[in-house]
Amino acid sequence: MQQLENLLERIIRRLNINLRGFDFDSGLFLRGCVPLPQLFKFYAFYAVTTRHPIHFHFSNSNLAGSYFLGKCKVDNAILYKSDIRGDELKSKGDAFQHRSSNLTLDQDELIWITDSFLIKTLVHNNSHDPENPEIYHIKNSAACHYANIHGAPIEGSFLGAFATVDLTALHGCVVGPYAYLQVGELWHQKVEEGRIWINQYNSFDFRYTFPEETLKRYVCLEPGKPPRGIFMDFIDDRKKDFRKVFDVVNMEPTISIPQTSSVSRYGVIKPETQVGENVLIAQRAYIENSVLGKGANAQENCFIINSWLQGNNVTAHGAKLIDAQLSENVFVGFNSFIRGLPESALTVGKGTIIMPHTIIDLNEPLSIPAEQLVWGYISNPEELKLQSIPLKQLEITTSPLKIGDMEFRGSGARFVATFQNRINHILEANGAYFDGAKNRGHAQNGQNVSYNIIQAYPIGPQQGIFPTIDIQP
């Protein structure tokens, strides 16, 4: 296990050098948060399909329990039960726009993770970094439990538990637990825990910060320990349901699945669940006693329990829905925690946008009207009034706006249009609009997949290190 210990220290040293301006010691959080014996107990696995570029290269790394899809390279890194998803990698010749400039790729895009420690982290490539369009790089960085790195190349940065960096290039930053960033690019900043910050250049700026004491009940990160709080308790209570999924080689579906839908064999699907057409359920999703209507999706690390999704619903990475009824076209953002009452389900009206990192944990019945923007912490109807706004009202906003602890500046119309366009892109990419011939997406393209496993050295100095492997078509 000596090489594994050396690898961990190498990552800590490199990350600390990048964060030296903050006098931040990442080792206080990374040492001991995952016991080293855990890192050689699990196999890694990768997907082979005819529709995704295949070239995997792993060297001097630990990959325990991690999943890979698409073109990936990992060097000198520790990835513990992380999902590295490259199903939207750009190809040579593809073009994308950054502000007023059009950029064309000279080669196929590659996900490259080096000298980093990612713990139960979701990585989704969809990057639009104009400086490195061909390489989606995560370097000298660490992310704690259930963080999301979504279209966000990262260098020399630390993400706390349940943090999300979305469509943002990070350089030498510390992002606190449950913070959410979508700001384009950030250099050498420390982002406080529970900060929700969405900024588009010359267009709009949205900011909200959770009350400290409220947030600590849900997620708390202390040096040398796994995160604790309501989020972790909720996940830990359902851990045992995933053991069979990963221990059994061939799993037969427990429910009827339409031909136009895709349900990962690495998800937990309880028999009481109903799945409609064009539905996507990703690996590590957990669905129990719920209905997913046509075009709905449950992305990685989602939990949907005792809930009904009418159709074309987006449940983004890490979101949790318990005792909820969602009308059509409702969006539930990254790592949101939405819990109604067993005797009175939360109802959400058509077209409502529940912002990333929103906590709705009810102590009395609540119904959210259609076409609302919702954020923050909500437990009753009075708190909803201070943490929501009708989309039509926001669309006509051009002057600074303050509702409760939320501050907004810029064009409300652009903010709403940007969100709605992105939601439509997600539905389109996931195959929600497939008509039997056109508009195929992940729900249709992900049906025929073979999985291959790789394992680490079981004993000796290299215990926990995976052999160097290069896998090509």
* Main beta-sheet strand count, sense and barrel state: 12 strands, mixed
- What is the straight-line distance between the termini? 32 Å
Second CATH tier, the architecture of the largest domain = 3 Solenoid
Structurally, the number of domains stands at 2
CATH superfamily of the largest domain: Hexapeptide repeat proteins
Give the number of DSSP strands: 49
Class derived from helix and strand content: alpha/beta
**Helix count, DSSP H or I runs of 4 or more residues:** 9
What is the gyration radius calculated from CA atoms?
Answer: 21 Å
Strand content: 25-35%
CATH C-level category of the largest domain: Mainly Beta
Strand order of the largest sheet: 46-47-24-23-20-17-14-11-6-3-1-48
- The CATH topology name of the largest domain reads UDP N-Acetylglucosamine Acyltransferase, domain 1
In percent, how helical is the residue content?
10-25%
Per-chain topology:
Elements: H1 2-18, H2 27-30, E1 44-48, E2 56-59, E3 67-69, E4 72-75, E5 78-80, E6 83-85, E7 95-98, E8 101-104, E9 110-114, E10 117-119, E11 122-124, E12 135-139, E13 142-143, E14 148-150, E15 154-155, E16 158-159, E17 164-166, E18 168-171, E19 174-175, E20 180-182, E21 184-187, E22 190-191, E23 195-200, E24 204-209, H3 212-218, H4 230-236, H5 240-247, E25 262-263, E26 268-269, E27 274-275, E28 280-281, E29 286-288, E30 291-292, E31 297-298, E32 303-305, E33 308-309, E34 314-315, E35 320-322, E36 324-326, E37 331-332, E38 337-339, E39 346-348, E40 353-354, E41 359-361, E42 367-368, E43 372-374, E44 377-378, H6 381-385, E45 388-390, H7 391-395, E46 401-403, E47 406-410, H8 412-429, H9 442-445, E48 450-454, E49 469-471
Parallel strand pairs: 1-3, 2-4, 3-6, 4-9, 5-10, 6-11, 9-12, 10-13, 11-14, 12-15, 13-16, 14-17, 15-18, 16-19, 17-20, 18-21, 19-22, 20-23, 25-28, 26-29, 27-30, 28-31, 29-32, 30-33, 31-34, 32-35, 33-36, 34-37, 35-38, 36-39, 37-40, 38-41, 39-42, 40-43, 41-44
Antiparallel strand pairs: 1-48, 2-49, 7-8, 23-24, 24-47, 43-45, 46-47
